[in-house]
Amino acid sequence: MHELSLVASVFEVLEEKAREHGAARVTKVVLDVGIMSGAVPDLIESAFEAYKRGTLAAGARLEIVVVPMKVRCPDCGGETVREDADFSCAGCGSRRVEIVEGRDLVIEKIELET
Amino acid sequence: MTTKTITVTRDLLATNKEAAAAIRRELRSRGILGVNLLSSPGSGKTTLLEALADLLKGRYRMAVIEGDIETERDAERIRRKGVPAWQITTGGACHLEARMIGKVLGQVPEAIDFLFIENVGNLVCPASYDLGEDLRFVLLSSPEGDDKPAKYPQAFLSADGLILTKADLLPHLPFDPARAAAEALAIKPGLKIFTVSALAGQGLDGLAGFLVEALGRLRSGRA
């Protein structure tokens, strides 16, 4: 359960961006959560709801976009998108794949009220 | 009152990644191999470090940073082996972060070969945090069961090596080392696998040899 530390980083970014744009409030936050990032969307949501009280994002809505895993195959060169932890190439069945997407946690967009 | 949407595209772990990169640069410039040990509680991380301390004694110098939620117990065990050790107590946090290591790094003696970091016992959260190490090992002990790699893929995915511990208990348990290895390799091809018993002194030479080779590579790449 490290989602609270992650959400604390979200709020550092929110404060920085609000200051930069002279905004009083943050009304929406869009996060990309890779399925192999090690973070759980439901837990991020609970942590966000708990953390936002009394902050500039008190009324903000959190939108989580779950990013599937994309693997690239060194044997056949194909790319496969996986919704679960299947580390194999759909094209040739190779298990030597390299993960190219789905490990990241990214704060993608925010909506500000000025 | 107007609303506007701005694109941020900021990695949430960016701050940790930057701190880790600084640690990695410092360790490499000092010719120290950083090793991060991850596992669930009780899989034998401290016992393995005690055995490595005995094995490397007189030939290589090591230091240990211990991460736990509470107590100095692990650092005290390591110090009893004559090895410098620092305890980080996270007070509840389930993982170590790079800036915690950064704070201790200044106290680590210049002339050492290996800096081991024993993470908080947890097979989930520590996987997401780079600590600036050069090698990351996951430990899996035989009583835990051989079905863990597929259940906790992120930890195995982030590792360079897997150490199957408590091999002396294998005759009494249904744990199949080949199955655990196959599951882990399906997640992370090329994962280096060691089977050891720290208490029985089994398999440790292979692991120590691997660490010494990695140290040699790090130092030759430094020139």
List the helices and strands and how they pair.
The complex is a heterodimer of chains A (114) and B (223).
Chain A: H1 3-20, E1 25-34, H2 41-52, E2 61-67, E3 69-72, E4 79-82, E5 98-101, E6 105-113
Parallel strand pairs in A: 1-2
Antiparallel strand pairs in A: 1-6, 3-4, 3-5
Helix pairs in contact in A: 1-2
Chain B: E1 3-11, H1 14-29, E2 33-38, H2 45-56, E3 62-68, H3 73-79, E4 85-89, H4 98-105, E5 114-118, E6 135-141, H5 148-151, H6 153-157, E7 161-165, H7 177-187, E8 192-195, H8 204-220
Parallel strand pairs in B: 2-5, 2-6, 3-4, 3-5, 6-7, 7-8
Helix pairs in contact in B: 1-4
Structure overview:
Chain A has helices at 3-20, 41-52; strands at residues 25-34, 61-67, 69-72, 79-82, 98-101, 105-113. Chain A has 114 residues and is an alpha+beta fold. Chain A has one domain (3-113): hypothetical protein PF0899 fold (2-Layer Sandwich), CATH 3.30.2320. Chain A is elongated and about 55 Å long. The longest helix of chain B has 17 residues, at 204-220. With 223 residues, chain B is an alpha/beta fold. In chain B, strand 3, helix 3 (73-79) and strand 4 form a beta-alpha-beta unit. The A-B interface holds A 1-2, 5-6, 9-10, 12-13, 17, 21, 27-28, 31, 36-39, 85, 87-88, 95-97, 99, 103-114 and B 1-13, 15, 93-95, 97, 124-125, 127-129, 150, 153-154, 157, 185-187, 189. Strand 6 of chain A pairs antiparallel with strand 1 (3-11) of chain B, so a sheet runs across the interface.
Concise summary:
With 114 residues, chain A is α+β, with helices and mostly antiparallel strands. Chain A is built from two helices and six strands, in the order H-E-H-E-E-E-E-E. In chain A, the strands form two sheets. In chain A, strands 2-1-6 form a three-stranded mixed β-sheet, covered by helices on one side.
